């Protein structure tokens, strides 16, 4: 069965530091991959998505993610974190033959000044 | 574009009462998804519609839950009778028509926080 793993439940970084959030998926073929962000009390907002082509994807708010087929990973990165980036981040997989998205359990990011 | 609209934003009710959550998808979107988010289970898909027709309701937890989409601009999720374990944030999301087999972006509403006492 398809699944998404976000191994880090909670990450704390200092403002200005770099960030990498991990995401691994289990699927027989290359799925469609998404990163969403959820600020407190808000819905989920799309940061970026990967369907095909260039494995390095740029998103909003200065985020990027790299698809690595050999590692079944789609890690999210940002070179310099801002305090406003504190939120929960969800990786999601969209298998090719369904309309559903399968979400990871999320990583809560805390940013210290 | 107003985005996906959900109401109410907060709902507090007593066990045994009927609860109705409402969703207005983005105009032109023909897919609508209902999710439930809890600390224990994370984000779960309950049901989704395409062109107002329920396609997959395998995530609906039990018969106390029902969902309808009477037209392209409105959907409801009803819980009757409600129980404390139904306390969660319920999200509605919508998506445009599938193009060439791609799974396109789902746009989420702000959610309804339900508390059942």
Q: Care to describe what's here?
A:
The complex is a heterodimer of chains A (113) and B (117). Chain A is an all-beta fold and 113 residues long. Chain A is built from no helices and twelve strands. Chain B is an all-beta fold. Chain B contains no helices and eleven strands. The N and C termini of chain B lie far apart (36 Å). Chain B is globular. The relative contact order of chain B is 0.33. In chain B, 0% of the residues lie in helices and 53% in strands. In chain B, strands 2, 4, 5, 6, 9, 10 and 11 form a seven-stranded mixed beta sheet that branches. In chain B, a hairpin with a 2-residue loop joins strand 5 and strand 6. Chains A and B meet through strand 5 and strand 6 of A and strand 5, strand 9 and strand 10 of B.
List strands and helices in order, with pairings.
The complex is a heterodimer of chains A (113) and B (117).
Chain A: E1 3-5, E2 10-14, E3 19-21, E4 24-26, E5 32-38, E6 44-50, E7 56-58, E8 64-68, E9 73-78, E10 87-94, E11 102-103, E12 107-112
Chain B: E1 5-7, E2 10-13, E3 19-24, E4 31-38, E5 42-50, E6 53-56, E7 65-71, E8 74-79, E9 88-95, E10 107-108, E11 112-116
Parallel strand pairs in B: 2-11
Antiparallel strand pairs in B: 1-3, 3-8, 4-5, 4-9, 5-6, 7-8, 9-10, 9-11
């Amino acid at each position: 069965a398809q699944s998404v793993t976000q191994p880090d439940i909670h990450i704390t970084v200092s403002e200005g530091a770099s960030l990498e959030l991990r995401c691994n998926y289990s699927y027989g073929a290359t799925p469609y991959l998404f990163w969403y962000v959820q600020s407190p009390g808000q819905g989920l907002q799309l940061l970026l998505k990967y369907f095909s082509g260039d494995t390095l994807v740029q998103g909003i708010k200065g985020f990027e993610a790299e698809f690595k087929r050999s590692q079944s990973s789609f890690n999210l990165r940002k070179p310099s974190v801002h305090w406003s980036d504190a939120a929960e981040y969800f990786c999601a997989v969209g298998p090719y033959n369904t309309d559903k998205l399968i979400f990871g359990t999320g990583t809560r990011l805390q940013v210290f000044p | 574009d107003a985005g996906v609209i959900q109401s109410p934003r907060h709902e507090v009710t007593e066990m045994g009462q009927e609860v109705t959550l409402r969703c207005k998808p983005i105009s032109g979107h023909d897919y609508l998804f209902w999710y439930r988010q809890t600390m224990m289970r994370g984000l779960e898909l309950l049901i989704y519609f395409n062109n107002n027709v329920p396609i997959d309701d395998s995530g609906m937890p039990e018969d106390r839950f029902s969902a309808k989409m009477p037209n392209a601009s409105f959907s409801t999720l009803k819980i009757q009778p409600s129980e404390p374990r139904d306390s969660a944030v319920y999200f509605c999301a919508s998506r445009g028509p599938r193009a060439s087999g791609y799974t396109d972006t789902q746009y989420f509403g702000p959610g309804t926080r339900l508390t059942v006492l």
